[in-house]
Amino acid sequence: MKDLAYHALEVASLAGASYVDIRIIMDSREIISVKNGAPLVNQIEGFGFGVRVIADGSWGFAASPMLDKDNIEKTAALAVKIAKSSAKLKRFDIKLADEPIHKDKWNSAYIIDPFKVPLEKKIGLLMSIDKTLRSDNRIKIARGELSFWRENQFFVSSEGSEIEQTFIRSGGGYAATAVDDKSGEIQTRSYPGVQGDQFLHLGWEVIESYDYEGNAERVRDEALALLSAEKCPKGEMDIIISGEQLALQIHESLGHPTELDRVLGMEANYAGTSFLTTEKLDNFRYGSEIVNIVADGTQPGGIATIGYDDDGVRSGRWFLVKDGIFCGYLTNRELTHVINDNHSRGCNRADGWNSLPMIRMTNISLIPGEWDFDNLIADTDKGILLGSNKSWSIDQKRLNFQFTSEIGWLIEKGKIVKVIKNPTYQSITPKFWASCVAICNENHWTLWGVSNCGKGQPGQRAEMSHGAAPSRFRKVNVGLG
Questions:
Q1: How many CB atoms lie within 10 A of CB 325?
Q2: In terms of Cα–Cα distance, which of 2, 27, 23 is closest to 167?
């Protein structure tokens, strides 16, 4: 395999490429699901390679699922041909930021290999949860899923880097949908993470660290309680957003807007551009003084935690927002010079061997504050505590947004008094983060995985994690849905 990789570099260079890299990827996926007592198992194997080149100042890319000398030569030559054709329409030459040569092997950490855990055990867990969820006939749909993914990647570049990496991602979740046959009301509750699922770069121990079976009864009962719950009140109120809901808020209103290709208008067809334009760097108030948000490709367990990105850049950690001031972007080697930086932040990733790398979020987290959760509730005279996400929308500049949670709890005089349904909140991104007045401490902080972030056309999927603790925001518009 190594000889073929270096042969690709040689072929492309001889054809006129000034830069070449190749990624050879083998991956295995196992997805076990149960819906209303019916199990389904999918086991998927993938293999292929992609060659990326710069020739005549433009990018070219080609890929193949067949790793042999003939296909290596054809694919490398095709990538150069595409680059030279693209160069006829270029506005400027591609310029890559300098990066040291890396020769390294990197593996994500795990304790229990999920692919060695018996299939019967995995199905048995989901079937047990399904039985609990459907023990009340008002639960019309119960679904559960466990998902495991291993990727082996080999990267070499014409600059001299040679990197082998292995990632293992594990996780899953479940949901119960309750229906009131008389009123037609439909409500869903899920567990444990963002929109029901939770993933980490770990092994089977992820599943064992969450009490999947022990929470099934609570999830069922909360779905049923929502059928008769009062609607979310309307108006301006304080809200406390749970960690898993806040993770998606971070993703949509901070993660995507800091992608530099989106800022520059190079990514607009899928989900728009960004309000965080380059003149705002280091002098724009994004949030209150207690808002500190870091990007971290080295975060233990994060599903965007990697040794190196698909540019061959070593992962790192940096601030996106510090003391409320916007101070950082997600960058790659190609675009970092636009903000007068001489080093990429290592955010270039592709969805598999047959996709061209683009800027993607790394792990992005809100740094914990000082509050204990019980004290935060007690300190809230009137407000709403919001649970897991149900739906969301945000405009093409990532400014005006609306989120609806699966469940809410009304807080009065420092106590949680009742469940409310369809709690919705709406704001404008800088105004919203400026209203953040309290963040819970590290004892309440959790790293939440997002496994299905979409970007680009043709669309690519990526994974990343967002750490957050419950936080309070002052005078937010609620109940607009």
A1: 18
A2: 27
Distance CA 330, CA 328 (A): 7
Cβ proximity of 362 and 318 under 8 Å:
no
Q: What is the pLDDT of residue 397?
A: 96
Number of domains in the chain: 2
CATH of the domain at 82: 3.30.2290.10
Cα–Cα distance, 259 to 361 (Å, whole number): 7
pLDDT for 24: 98
Both 223 and 238 in a single domain? no
pLDDT of residue 331: 98
Retrieve residue 468's tokens.
Answer: 């957050």
For residue 364, what pLDDT is reported?
A: 98
Q: How many degrees, rounded to 5, is the angle at CA 250 between CA 146 and CA 313?
A: 80
> Do residues 373 and 472 share a domain?
yes
- The H or E element that residue 419 is part of is strand 415-421
Residue 397 and residue 451 in one domain:
yes
Q: Which of 172, 203, 228 is the last residue of a domain?
A: 228
Can you tell me the distance from the alpha carbon of 424 to that of 436, in angstroms, rounded to the nearest whole number? 17
For residues 63 and 2, give the distance between their C-alpha atoms in angstroms, rounded to a whole number: 17
| pLDDT at residue 269, as a whole number | 80
**Pairwise CA distance, residues 428 & 40, whole Å:** 42
Rounded CA separation 481/466 (Å): 26
Low-confidence ranges of the chain (pLDDT < 50): none
Specify whether 262 is located in the same domain as 189.
Answer: no
CA-only gyration radius of the chain, Å: 24
Terminal CA-CA length for the chain = 55
Residue 377, helix vs strand vs coil: helix
Co-location of 248 and 187 in the same domain? no
Of 206, 228, 250, which residue constitutes the final position of a domain? 228
- Same structural domain, 190 and 88: yes
Range of the domain at 100: 2-228
The pLDDT score that the predictor gives to residue 481 is 54
